[in-house]
Amino acid sequence: MSKPQIATKQTNQQSRKSLIVTADDFGLNSQVNEAVEKLHRAGFLTQASLMVNESGVDEAVRIAKRNPGLTVGLHLSLCAGRASRPSRLTDAAGMMPESPALAGIRYAFDSRLDADLEREIAAQFSRFRELGFAPTYWDGHTHLHLHPKVLRLTLPYAQQFGVVRLVQEDRSGLLPWIFRRLSNSAKRKLGGIRYTDAIFGLEYTGQMTTERILSLLDAIRAPWSELYLHPGAEPGELDVPRILHRLETLQIDLANSCDLAQTPQHAES
Asked: What beta strand segments (E) does 27-175 contain?
């Protein structure tokens, strides 16, 4: 069975749809890292979002170096993880708040945190470059990168990163509504930074199965979409050959954020 081709400028012009497949939490630990590499080598995963402060980051860098086709972006982590250094954002051990909701409320209403928050954001962008990665794309752990203050403080450091994740899943519920509002607000501030037309992953966070991925693929209508998942934390092995066959049948090309950044700007929905 032939694999869906990785999108290029030429194939983007000829195909109807392109799909970016992203692994979140790259660098968290060995279990995640090994699952990321396995899914990439199977031909499905096209990029991985790196947590630069976590214990598995050095192993993740080695995996990226031996898999040059894997695009790596920054998974900006401002909750539920380790900070670059202890500060007002963290406890004494340098750990940030576990709850994204609590972190978001603190960042919104406690201006005393602003300087430390900006320093942490800057440090993670700097660390990403120090690890040897070119600026590609960024997103955020628990999507906290869309928090209005976080986004405002981030943009000066992210101008060379051509793509960002907006979370605009078209489904009911409070959480999708919140992220659609945050994403629509972010659009007005991004300038030339690109984003996909559609995204899939919020509904099945940590619960991606083959059947659910197939149902999401069937729902793709936009020219550019992203599907994100959490290798190493999902409930079981994916049937990658079956997924790749469905992609081929639906005429969906696998792509990455670099491909998106290099395509002509199209009218956003």
From this structure: 47-50, 71-76, 137-140, 163-164
Domain membership of residue 267 (yes or no) is: no
User: Cβ atoms within 10 A of the Cβ of 31, count?
Assistant: 12
Given a cut of 80, whether residue 191 has pLDDT beyond it is yes
Instruction: Sort strands 163-164 and 71-76 into parallel, antiparallel or unpaired.
Output: unpaired
Residue 62 neighbours by CB distance under 10 Å: 12
Torsion of CA 116, 122, 125, 130, to 10 degrees: -100
95 occurs within a structural domain: yes
Looking at residue 146, its amino acid is: L
Q: pTM for the complete prediction?
A: 0.93
Give the separation between CA 145 and CA 164, rounded to whole angstroms. 9
200 within some domain = yes
Cα separation of 48 and 36, whole Å? 7
pLDDT of 46-66, one tens digit each?
Answer: 999 999 999 999 999 999 999
Give the bridge partners for 227, in sequence order: 21, 200
Q: Which domain holds residue 45?
A: 9-262
Number of domains in the chain: 1
Within 13 Å, how many C-alpha atoms sit on residue 268's CB side?
16
Mean pLDDT for the stretch of residues 154-182: 95
1, part of any domain: no
30 pLDDT exceeds 70? yes
Q: What is the CATH number of the domain that holds 91?
A: 3.20.20.370
**What's the whole-number mean pLDDT along residues 99-124?**
97
Distance CA 143, CA 256 (A): 19
The first and second tokens of residue 37, run together, are 């590499």
Give yes or no for a contact between 12 and 263, defined as CB atoms under 8 angstroms apart: yes
Q: Percentage of the chain with pLDDT > 90?
A: 90
